[in-house]
Amino acid sequence: MNKYMGFFELKDINIPTVPWKEFHTHSTLDSNMLWTLRVAVENSNDLNLPRFVGVRSDEAYRNGVSLLSKYKDNGMVIYYPYFIAKKSGVIEISAHRTVIEAVDKDLWNLVTYGKRDVTLILSEETKEFIGDKDFLVQEELDTLDKYIRIIRGKYRDYLFEGKSIFAEWSFAYNTDVNQKPIGEKYLVFYELRSVN
């Protein structure tokens, strides 16, 4: 399962995900919101694909049209409302353990800059913290655990084949066009993939 398939899987399983839509030239983006655009390809390398994060609707539309002209034959461009991340991370689920890595604010702090506030390694017998063991409060750990169980159950065949499932997530807030938080914090998943 690559990023392209993962977007559809996120919609199909019962976990909170970004309300993504496929971008087309007739797509309408609300000017009272900021937007995120991402590319997913059916074949070939799907890492480090272009994205635009937290951009105004006119810029999002222009970039969406440009990305669509480049990727429409081998994938899709998706868009969804921008959110402000409070804490973010990745989860690796394999047959016999789960690894949660978390970082303050945006996931880019982890995947691009190599920052990490905590790594939690869970197996049936052990729980090991590396870093700030208080970074994720118990309520957040319980929420993540709930969805890890759902993902583990849904993809147990992948796991028994020796594959791992990776998920990207954030505890986030909705935002206005001035990047001010709106409403309550919530958990959202925005990428799911399998890795051999």
Low-pLDDT residue spans: none
Mind telling me the C-alpha Rg?
Answer: 17 Å
Average pLDDT figure: 93
Net shape: globular
Number of DSSP-assigned strands: 10
Note down, in words, how this protein is organized.
By secondary structure, this protein is α+β, with helices and mostly antiparallel strands. It is built from 5 helices and 10 strands, in the order H-E-E-E-H-E-E-E-H-E-E-H-H-E-E. It has helices spanning 3-12, 57-71, 108-111, 138-154, 156-160, and strands spanning 21-22, 34-41, 51-56, 75-81, 83-93, 97-104, 118-123, 127-131, 164-175, 181-195. It has a 6-stranded antiparallel beta sheet with strand order 8-7-6-5-9-10. Strands 1-4-2-3 form a 4-stranded antiparallel beta sheet. Strand 9 (164-175) and strand 10 (181-195) form a beta hairpin. It is globular.
Task: Provide the fold topology.
Blueprint: H1 3-12, E1 21-22, E2 34-41, E3 51-56, H2 57-71, E4 75-81, E5 83-93, E6 97-104, H3 108-111, E7 118-123, E8 127-131, H4 138-154, H5 156-160, E9 164-175, E10 181-195
Antiparallel strand pairs: 1-4, 2-3, 2-4, 5-6, 5-9, 6-7, 7-8, 9-10
Descriptive labels:
196 residues, alpha+beta, four-stranded antiparallel β-sheet, 41% strand
In short:
The protein is 26% helix and 41% strand. With 196 residues, the protein is an alpha+beta fold. Strands 8-7-6-5-9-10 form a six-stranded antiparallel beta sheet. The chain has a four-stranded antiparallel beta sheet with strand order 1-4-2-3.
